Amino acid sequence: MDFLNGLDSDYIIILVFAYIFVAATVAKLGSTREVGGKKTLFYSLLLTPAYGLYYVYHSPAKDTLKIAHYRCPECGLEYTDGYSHCPNCKKEGKRVRLRKFYMRTY
């Protein structure tokens, strides 16, 4: 612990926060893989973020499915069919264009 005597306590705090930030970044990468983010964060904090990164890239990716949804800005209803205008609002005599967005499922 002699090497810590020469370091200012502010530098130690900055280094600890940087270590936690890098470990959290690696955990974010792990959340898209089968290992998951929590397990990756645990290994990154316990061992090193470099080991966590190795652990992430040797894990297979999650099977994701990207599904298109359509939402009406007027009534808020969502549809999975590719309507151009809201069927619910069309019954009331309004022509409201649906907004397309994507959802990912695992």
Cα distance, first to last residue?
Answer: 47 Å
Instruction: Give the averaged pLDDT, no decimals.
Output: 84
**Helical element count?**
5
Low-confidence stretches: none
**Tally of domains:** 2
One letter per element, helices H and strands E, the order comes to HHHHEEHE
Proportion of residues in β-strands: 15-25%
- Protein structure class: alpha+beta
**How would you write the strand order of the largest sheet?**
2-1-3
Strands, total number: 3
For the biggest sheet, the summary is: 3 strands, antiparallel
Helix content: 40-55%
Gross morphology is elongated
* Computed Rg: 24 Å
Description:
- The protein is of the alpha+beta class and 106 residues long.
- It contains 5 helices and 3 strands.
- A 3-stranded antiparallel sheet has the order 2-1-3, with no helix packed on it.
- α2 (9-30) packs antiparallel against α3 (37-46).
- The longest helix has 22 residues, at 9-30.
- It has 2 domains: 8-57, no CATH class; 65-105.
List keywords for this structure.
106 residues; alpha+beta; 2 domains; 5 helices; 3 strands
